[in-house]
Amino acid sequence: MLKEKDVDVRHVVNTVGGLAETGLTSIMQTSADEIGKTIRLNLMTQILPVKYLGQYMAERRTREDNTGLDAVDRSFVLTSSINAQQGYSIAFYSAAKGGIESFIRPAAMDIGRHGIRINAVSPGSVVTPETASQPKDFNARARAAALGRLCTVEEIADSIRSLTNLTGITGQTITVDAGQSINPAQSLFQQEAEGLITLPGSAAEKEAEELAYTRPG
Question: What class has domain 2-124+147-179?
Answer without folding.
Answer: alpha beta
